[in-house]
Amino acid sequence: MKRIVSGMRPTGRLHLGNYEGALKNWVRLQDEYECYYFVADWHALTSDYADTSLIKENTLAMVTDWLAAGLDPQKCVIFVQSLVPEHAELHIYFSAVTPLGWLERVPTYKEQRENITDKDLANYAFLGYPVLQAADICMYKAHFVPVGLDQVAHVELTREIVRRFNNFYGDVFPEPGALLTETPKLIGTDGRKMSKSYNNTIELSDSPDAIRAKVRQMITDRTRIRRTDPGHPEDCDVCKVHRMFVPADVADRFDEDCRGAGIGCVDRKKALADAMIEYLGPITERLNYYRNHQDEVRDIMLEGSRRAREEAGRIMADVRRAMNISWE
Questions:
Q1: CATH, residue 21
Q2: What is the pTM of this model?
Q3: Alpha carbon distance 202, 305 (integer Å)
Q4: How far apart are the first and last CA of the chain?
Q5: How far apart are CA 324 and CA 154, in angstroms?
Q6: φ/ψ of residue 280, rounded to 5
Q7: Is 288 inside a domain boundary?
Q8: Local structure of residue 280 (DSSP, 8 states)
Q9: pLDDT tens-digit profile of 186-243?
């Protein structure tokens, strides 16, 4: 089977945007590829180095959500980056062959330096995180990295690093390809993209009551003043999101009723909340189990990290021999 590697920074509980944008795809891919999924806790240090108090807690919470979403440790390797120190070793070797100019031109580097003003990002870790990212991918000789269109540049930088490394030391690593995946933009409760940064999320762990309360806050058709006014579902956040969680014919009927003032905005919000609660039902059931079995979640992380390190050790032995720095 072809091999895939992907990871997430430990930000704690995941929300519907995380699930729709990446996690749901991870669950599907584990049946088609040999998958390595990791908690990128070292990447969290690039910007959150001043306060590391929540990293372990967030790691456990995030992996709990992964398992609830359907990741199966019998089908994929789930591990913690910092428990596989070979990632740091390969990062050093890659950093030796990566020109500074390559890192300074990364679009997200400039963008985040300009937009993130509450943290000091003038550190090497932030500038050099694409090198560590390349090491994460190549550590397992991944064939593909599942990404959205906006992340293709990151994979291309990894390919450039691999080409330069192989030019010096032989064909050690394959050039990973970007496995383009559809990443639908899920609208949050305030009309912006769903994001923890905006505090507008519906979390996978939210109770039915919490989901209903959050949906009631969502923005509807701003031109519809009275219940008897015809609606415009194409301009309504609630209508757009509802369509993502019900069959097309069901959404079409709701849209028609909205345009004819057969239903009001409150009715559509109730329908959306009901659809989300039903959609998250299997995840909620598994989540309740894993929340009550946190020792099992921890064991899954440790066993996955052991398996990942075993594979990483074999590959790093090949890397050292290729670089003529092996003492074996």
A1: 3.40.50.620
A2: 0.92
A3: 30
A4: 30
A5: 29
A6: -85, 0
A7: no
A8: T
A9: 999 999 999 988 899 999 999 999 999 999 999 999 889 888 899 999 999 999 999 9
